[in-house]
Every structure is written in structure tokens, then in C-alpha cells.
Write a structure and sequence with these properties.
It is built from nine helices and no strands. The chain is mainly alpha-helical and 141 residues long. It is elongated.
């Protein structure tokens, strides 16, 4: 059982296996919390991959139970956490495309893109970033 976020950060793959292996134990929420704390510090795509691996390996009933145990007033559902990490990676992709094209991104445009958690919208912006004349035009997509 990997209960420490520090230990999970040292070997996130083993932490994923720990969550899956111990999903039915009373320590499951603490194990999951250790993994999520650790992967939050990884790049967003890698963290989302680990969250998806755990989600795919666990029966829906156990996943929902762990989500309910993990939820507090300040914490959102795990699936939203994963979506936010994916959204962050997509926003970085948009900025990378715009930068590669030599387009400046005004702070208000950057803030709007960073605030977006709608994955379909972010996907549309990634595609549009290849052809728009300015970063501001991107927001009209």
C-alpha cells in the first residue's frame, strides 16, 4: 500500500497499481489521495493517463464509492480533476501552436484559454490555431 504522496511521486506507476490492488480496502481513499497528489505534480497528460488507467481498471461501483469518499467542500470529483488536467495540456498545445506561428497572445486571450475546461472548445481552438490570423481571432471559433 502506498499511502504517502512522496512515495507515490517516487514511483507513480507502482502507486497506480496500489490503488487498483487495494481498491476494496478501508485505506483506498488514502491510497488514491496519495496517487492524485503525486500525479498532480507531473505533466498534465501523464497525470491524466494515470487517472484514466485507474478509472478503467476499477469497477464503476468502486470508482463512484472512491469519488464520494474523496469529495469534500473544496475538492471536486476525480473525473473533473482529470478533465482539468487534460484541459491544461490542451491550452498549452494552443499556446505552442500560436508561438510556433509567431503570433503574440494578449494576456486577456491567454486568461480565457487557460480558464476554459470545455474539451470540445479547446479542441476547436487547437485546430483553429493553425490557421487564425491572430490569437484574438481564435476566441471567435
Amino acid at each position: 500500500m502506498i499511502l504517502s504522496p512522496l512515495e507515490a511521486a517516487e514511483d507513480p506507476e507502482l502507486a497506480v497499481l496500489s490503488v487498483i490492488t487495494h481498491a476494496y480496502t478501508p485505506e483506498a481513499p488514502d491510497i488514491l489521495n496519495a496517487l492524485l497528489t503525486a500525479v498532480h505534480k507531473l505533466d498534465p497528460q501523464r497525470g491524466a493517463l494515470y487517472a484514466d488507467m485507474v478509472r478503467a481498471a476499477l469497477p464503476l461501483k468502486i470508482w463512484e464509492h472512491l469519488e464520494n469518499l474523496m469529495q469534500t467542500e473544496t475538492r471536486k470529483y476525480l473525473s473533473e480533476w482529470a478533465r482539468n488536467n487534460v484541459a491544461e495540456g490542451m491550452a498549452e498545445s494552443i499556446f505552442a501552436v500560436l508561438s510556433a506561428r509567431g503570433l503574440d497572445v494578449p494576456e486577456d486571450v491567454r486568461a480565457e484559454i487557460n480558464a476554459c475546461t470545455d474539451l470540445a472548445q479547446l479542441d476547436a481552438w487547437i485546430r483553429a490555431a493553425v490557421t487564425v490570423e491572430s490569437a484574438r481571432d481564435l476566441l471567435d471559433t
